């Protein structure tokens, strides 16, 4: 037994955890077929941990879905597998590669794999008949996400209409859907990047090794450090060199940059994040740089 | 900021309100900037946009107006949530638009707020808008209110201007339910009394805005007396290891629960004792709001989602007749005899509008008993009859068991927010 709380105050991290667990349970109770989008990145790992807590000692009562770009970091995929195996949840992989092959999405040679995830995801949601898809989006990430509801309604085309969002009052979430529609659920909306790291540190849970400082062969493109890879052919003038780096976000390796860092423990990462002067997406995500409304536009199409 | 981990920090949720040009975005920008919560890439993007639009200053409102249509029109349309932290606290701001037609957004932001921040322009004094916002915050029982008298630099930091607004607002506030009020003279643009104490207003001896936000005591606003545990989810592992485990997951809405406590399950009225309270893989000795826990009972009583666990001597009365204040949120008006879906705690039902008693004029507090419908953004007192009993408390006693939402059954949209006066 833990000691009695004399002042009945919860730390902000405990409050965030309680709120997220409440959301997980609400969705599991009210939706026919939920699914958890699980990339193996830090945010979706925290989501997995919260889902584990929400239903313990029962297993997580829904499957997890990974949208595989084919360009994912192997370290991330192995962490994904460890989590799935430990918790005994069913993993569904929606492959962008296959979606291209089946004509679900079109590879015009210009569109990034990240962007092609949208069509692949929507197809997987429709094919499996999912009515709710948990995503690890946080409102602090980006200004369009700051407008996002915890329950985000998507029409039968998977579109987000930011002007028609349902008001969200108290902790009363409205999960009503029409045939063919689904809901995106964001249980960690109110968490910040620092909260995520504090929680990972507190819980002592496994995250992909690429978040920690390591040596990697990288090259510079558009002010970002990208990983050397067969999927990322060098352009003229680009040269590869070995540097001491770590990743702040993980995604498609052709678009996800790394930062020079010697932070090799969670505490060192927390110290680094706390004084960072550039957002994680601004620093390392090529996909947000297309226009000022890049995220909003992608979300309207059905991105998470 | 670097050395404090959020592990030890506490959380304050506040909602901002104010008219269009009261400088709300500038103030939020200032709070974010001075607490080092704006990142260089965000600031650079805002600077670049300001330049390309031909502004001769950096428009901090661009930081908060996240949608394309908002930037085009230069106004805030929808509630946005923003985050910053100081060594003392983490803050969640519900940034609500000031336009008259968006009262529903103000209600949305205020529903989860511990504190409401109303901005007035020192040159204009109190407007209809500031009164309306104070009324909404008091209706929503936001326990702390700050009136920030902004643009003091434009009235030469004149003490009499501040005192006139202070007196006028205090007089108005006596008609409302505002347990804690602080009036702070500031200049969001110049930063006076926002984070740093202003040298321009030596006559003001109260706290700066940031100091007040960091120190206002919110933990005591929760009800720790009346046990309310709406059952959200029944945890049944059906595994060999936990074959007989049966727990009730939920978020504590009131009171303190302890193992050994006698409890009653509503609406069945069956009694039992708390056998244990689990937080993930730990057994804990007590649970209080807003913890999400799993409660186990000694007896195998029938408990399902939508039920409520309370104390036998202190339980809400199940009722199908609800008297409530409703904020209507959609263009098609609310009319008597209308049928709607209702969600109250973890219980869903249908509701029939039996009567609309009056429409409240949020500017004058006048009760208009002639109008028998509520239009969009209007607030009124309504009598409902529900298909199943709800386990409710007056909103003034408990913001969780006293609140509900109304849903249009055809469109599925949330159309009303309700605060219970009483049930019978």
What features would you describe in this structure?
Chain A: One of its GO terms (molecular function) is nucleotidyltransferase activity. Chain A: Belongs to the PAPS reductase family. CysD subfamily. Chain A: Its EC number is 2.7.7.4. The complex is a heterodimer of chains A (304) and B (424). Chain A has nine helices and ten strands. By secondary structure, chain A is α/β, with parallel strands linked by helices. Chain A has a six-stranded mixed beta sheet with strand order 3-2-1-4-6-5. Chain A has a four-stranded antiparallel beta sheet with strand order 8-7-9-10, with no helix packed on it. In chain A, helix 1 crosses helix 2 and helix 6 packs antiparallel against helix 7. The longest helix of chain A has 19 residues. Chain A starts with 11 loop residues before the first helix and ends with a helix. Chain B is an alpha+beta fold and 424 residues long. Classes of the chains: A alpha/beta (304), B alpha+beta (424). The interface between A and B is large, with 75 and 88 residues.
């Amino acid at each position: 037994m833990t000691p009695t709380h004399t002042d009945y105050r919860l730390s902000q991290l405990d409050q965030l955890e309680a709120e997220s667990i409440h959301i997980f349970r609400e969705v599991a109770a009210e939706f026919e077929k939920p699914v958890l989008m699980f990339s193996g990145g830090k945010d979706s790992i925290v989501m997995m941990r919260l889902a584990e807590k929400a239903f313990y000692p029962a297993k997580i009562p829904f499957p997890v879905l990974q949208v595989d770009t084919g360009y994912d970091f192997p370290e991330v995929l192995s962490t994904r597998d460890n989590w799935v195996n430990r918790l005994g949840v069913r993993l569904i992989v929606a492959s962008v590669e296959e979606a291209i092959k089946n004509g679900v999405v079109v590879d015009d040679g210009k569109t990034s794999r990240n962007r092609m995830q949208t069509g692949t995801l929507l197809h997987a949601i429709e094919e499996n008949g999912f009515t709710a898809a948990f995503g690890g989006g946080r409102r602090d990430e980006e200004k369009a996400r700051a407008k996002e509801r915890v329950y985000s309604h998507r029409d039968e085309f998977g579109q987000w209409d930011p002007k028609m969002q349902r008001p969200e009052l108290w902790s009363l979430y409205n999960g009503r859907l029409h045939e063919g529609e689904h809901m995106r659920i964001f249980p960690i909306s109110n968490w910040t990047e620092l909260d995520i790291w504090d929680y990972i540190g507190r819980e002592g849970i496994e995250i992909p090794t690429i978040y920690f400082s390591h040596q990697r062969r990288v090259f510079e493109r558009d002010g970002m450090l990208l990983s050397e890879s067969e999927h990322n052919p060098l352009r003229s003038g680009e040269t590869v060199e070995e540097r001491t780096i770590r990743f702040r976000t993980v995604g498609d390796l052709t678009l996800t940059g790394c930062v020079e860092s010697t932070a090799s423990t969670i505490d060192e990462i927390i110290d680094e994040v706390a004084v960072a002067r550039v957002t994680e997406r601004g620093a390392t995500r090529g996909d947000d740089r297309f226009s000022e409304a890049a995220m909003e536009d992608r979300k309207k199409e059905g991105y998470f | 900021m670097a050395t404090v981990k959020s592990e030890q920090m506490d959380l304050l949720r506040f909602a901002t309100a104010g008219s269009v040009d009261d400088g709300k975005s500038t103030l939020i920008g200032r709070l974010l900037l001075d607490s080092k919560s704006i990142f260089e890439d965000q600031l650079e993007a805002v600077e670049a946009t300001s330049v390309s639009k031909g502004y001769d200053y950096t428009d901090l409102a661009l930081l908060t107006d996240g949608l394309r249509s908002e930037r085009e029109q230069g106004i805030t349309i929808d509630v946005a949530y923003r985050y910053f932290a100081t060594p003392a606290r983490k803050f969640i701001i519900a940034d609500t638009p000031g336009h008259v037609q968006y009262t529903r957004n103000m209600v949305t932001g205020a529903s989860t707020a511990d504190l409401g921040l109303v901005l007035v322009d020192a040159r204009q004094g109190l407007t209809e808008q500031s009164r309306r916002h104070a009324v909404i915050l008091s209706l929503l029982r936001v326990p702390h209110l700050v009136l920030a008298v902004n643009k003091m630099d434009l009235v030469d930091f004149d003490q009499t201007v501040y005192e006139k607004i202070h007196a006028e607002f205090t007089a108005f506030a006596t008609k409302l339910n505002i347990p804690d009020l602080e009036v702070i003279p500031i200049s969001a643009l110049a930063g006076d009394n926002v984070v740093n104490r202003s040298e321009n207003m030596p006559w003001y001896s109260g706290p700066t805005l940031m100091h007040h936000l960091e120190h206002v005591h919110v933990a005591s606003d929760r009800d720790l007396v009346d046990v309310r545990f709406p059952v959200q989810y029944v945890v049944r592992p059906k595994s060999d290891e936990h074959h007989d485990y049966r727990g009730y997951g939920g978020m504590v809405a009131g009171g303190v629960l302890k193992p050994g406590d006698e409890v009653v399950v509503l609406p069945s009225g069956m009694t039992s004792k708390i056998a244990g309270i689990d937080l993930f893989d730990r057994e804990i000795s007590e649970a209080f709001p807003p913890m999400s826990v799993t409660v186990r009972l000694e007896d195998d009583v029938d408990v399902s989602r939508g039920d409520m666990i309370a104390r036998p001597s202190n339980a809400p009365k199940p009722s199908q007749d609800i008297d409530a204040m409703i904020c209507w949120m959609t263009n098609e008006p609310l009319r008597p005899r209308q049928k709607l879906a209702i969600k109250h705690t973890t219980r869903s039902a249908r509701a029939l509008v039996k009567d609309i008693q009056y429409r409240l004029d949020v500017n004058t507090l006048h009760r208009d008993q002639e109008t028998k419908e509520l239009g969009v953004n209007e607030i009124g007192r309504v009598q409902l009859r529900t298909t199943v009993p709800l386990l409710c408390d007056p909103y003034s006693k408990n913001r969780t068991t006293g609140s509900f939402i109304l849903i249009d059954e055809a469109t599925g949209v949330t159309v009303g927010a309700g605060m219970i006066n009483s049930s019978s």
